[in-house]
Design a protein that fits this description.
By secondary structure, the protein is of the alpha/beta class. Helices cover about 55% and strands about 10% of the residues. It has two domains: about 180 residues, no CATH class; about 100 residues, no CATH class. The radius of gyration is 26 Å and the shape is elongated.
Length: about 375
């Protein structure tokens, strides 16, 4: 079992990759006590994509399996807990088959795959994990004795090839960094790249908004930065393309303008959904005033303001009272993010801005350009 937010990312990531191949169920409860396997997968006899596209992960998913991804290397107790959950699931499946007067061959019972960033020699020896090079499994994949129906994947030992890319993205440190570089270098035509970039960018955002960051968090944020930048670039490009396409279809100036606005709105919706997990009603209502800003300024605000800050500045009137608390700090932060700097001239405009009624202050900071604000309020 892994921890949030890695746990959430790992489940979404594996589900995204495996859903075209079969039935995926995450956080599945198993008897007798309430336990959950991270991900249970049953292959489809006629998958919508070729399993070979996923390399080693596709090879793992050739048969029913339970996947347990770990952010940190598991100890012996955690491995045994995974085995216990596997056997509880086996028991549940066998009981169900008996009730239905069916049988399940041994080969069809799911195998456990523990995905670990690394595996110590002591752990591998303690569970008698062995490589199986004769059946084309390669380095880094250690099978426990036959009747255990389990294997340990030491991600840092996997060869750096295209076949292992999708598993190496779940690694740590240099292993993950290299995999991220390979992902970013993939062609935009790759059918998997776009969705995986979005999931990784979302993972980075979920970590970044934590109040207290550990050294591990900061390392992860740094490792995921190339993915985040590539995803942001793609998201902005998609918005621009959708706008141009809508405009061409209309064939009129009004159509082009409407198309650009719709494309930009879609871009904003995508960014908000990824950053905050969903696009709720309050955020959706705040999009219209956001779209009045120039795209570069809007982009900075979308990626740097919290949900509460966005709603204070662009949401309905019920949020405006929150501006009263630490008003100067909030105004300064908004201006520094919107304009990308906070120089002496902007500083000199703050005292007069703070004297304005809240509604007027919000309206002016939304609508006036930097030059207009300075002309009216700077000393």
């Amino acid at each position: 079992m892994t921890r949030q937010p890695h746990d959430q990312f790992a489940k979404q990531y594996l589900a995204e990759l495996l859903t075209p191949l079969g039935q995926v169920e995450t956080s599945r409860d198993v008897a007798s006590e309430v336990r959950q396997v991270d991900l249970w997968f049953v292959p489809n006899p006629t998958p919508s994509v070729e399993p070979q596209n996923l390399g080693l992960l596709g090879q793992i998913a050739a048969t029913a399996c339970v996947l347990e991804p770990f952010r940190n290397a598991p100890n012996s107790v955690e491995v045994r807990n995974c085995l216990l959950k596997l056997y509880s699931l086996h028991g549940e499946l066998l009981r169900k088959a008996r009730r239905e007067q069916n049988t399940i061959p041994e080969a069809e019972l799911p195998r456990l795959w523990i995905l670990s960033p690394s595996c110590s020699t002591r752990l591998l020896e303690g569970f008698a994990g062995k490589l199986n090079l004769s059946e084309n499994w390669g380095e880094g994949v250690y099978f426990l004795p036959e009747f255990y129906k389990a294997a340990l994947v030491a991600i840092n030992q996997l060869p750096a090839t295209a076949e292992t890319l999708w598993l190496r993205l779940l690694g740590r440190g240099a292993t993950q960094q290299q995999a991220i570089n390979e992902l970013v270098a993939l062609s935009d035509e790759n059918p998997l790249q776009s969705n995986i970039l979005e999931l990784l960018a979302n993972w980075r955002l979920n970590v970044e908004v934590r109040e207290t960051l550990t050294d591990e968090d900061r390392e992860l944020i740094m490792n995921l930065s190339p993915v985040y930048l590539r995803w942001r670039e793609q998201t902005l490009q998609e918005g621009r393309q959708e706008g141009r396409q809508e405009g061409r279809q209309e064939g009129r100036q009004e159509g082009r303008q409407e198309g650009r606005q719709e494309g930009q709105r879609q871009m904003v919706e995508n960014i908000l959904s990824v950053r905050f997990g969903e696009l709720d009603e309050e955020l959706a209502e705040a999009i219209a005033p956001m779209l009045q800003l120039p795209p570069p300024e809007l982009t900075r605000l979308l990626f740097n303001l919290s949900r509460e800050e966005l709603l204070v500045w662009f949401g309905n009137v019920s949020w405006r009272d929150r501006l009263q608390e630490d008003k100067q700090q909030k105004v300064e932060h908004f201006l520094s993010v919107r304009f990308g700097e906070f120089d002496e001239r902007i500083t000199s405009a703050i005292p007069l801005l703070l004297q304005l009624p809240i509604a007027e202050l919000i309206h002016l900071l939304q609508s006036l350009s930097r030059e207009e604000l300075l002309a009216r309020f700077a000393e």
